[in-house]
């Protein structure tokens, strides 16, 4: 697991943006299929991307998908797509034909199937699963990732590509990418910042499968961890 530690959340976000741009520059003829996550940490990254790195990003070669989504309309403040659109996608010279959102306003079970079929049709296939170029993940304090929470480990080996999960803290339904297609990605990148994440980062790096995020981190073929000094303080 490759670790990149920066001085602050802002610098960590900048490092990850530049890393993605560099990866794309190294393969100038390639279309990159990227699955995004929501949350506070990527929100900072998206804001910085829109304000500092629009001109150096090869937007025309990017296709955006979502790792997970809350079952709410895009106008809702909880919507991962809505947040990304407001902070980044609406400010970048990016065709909306290249943005594939989870429709959180739809019936959850139907949407999980619809979106799985869409991803299967759009993303190159390998080993029977879509092969994203990058899956961007966060980590919750409890070790959850991709809206797969502790106690929902069956989703890590599910035969379905997307499933309906439920946040055990508030009961909110979510659409979540399951473990096997995440493990099939060319790169899995965790973006984690803040001292309150130090324990979970330490657990991922030093212990066994103590949660869904650790399970993914220990099994994906190319894992990168972008963290700040706070999140790295217990390593």
Q: What is the secondary structure topology, with strand pairs?
A:
Layout: E1 2-6, H1 9-26, E2 32-36, H2 40-52, E3 62-66, E4 68-70, H3 80-87, H4 108-122, E5 125-126, E6 129-130, E7 134-137, E8 162-166, E9 173-177, H5 179-183, E10 188-192, H6 198-206, H7 212-219, E11 223-228
Parallel strand pairs: 1-11, 2-3, 2-7, 7-10, 10-11
Antiparallel strand pairs: 4-9, 5-6, 8-9
Helix pairs in contact: 1-2
Strand and helix order: EHEHEEHHEEEEEHEHHE
Low-confidence stretches: none
The main β sheet shows up as: 6 strands, parallel
Rounded to an integer in angstroms, the radius of gyration calculated over CA atoms is 16 Å
**Secondary structure: number of strands:** 11
Instruction: Estimate what percentage of residues fall within beta strands.
Output: 15-25%
| Class per helix and strand makeup | alpha/beta
Instruction: State the end-to-end distance.
Output: 13 Å
Give the rounded overall mean pLDDT. 97
Q: Give me the side-by-side strand order of the main sheet.
A: 1-11-10-7-2-3
Helix content: 25-40%
How does the overall form come out from the CA principal axes? Answer: globular
Number of helical segments with 4 or more residues: 7
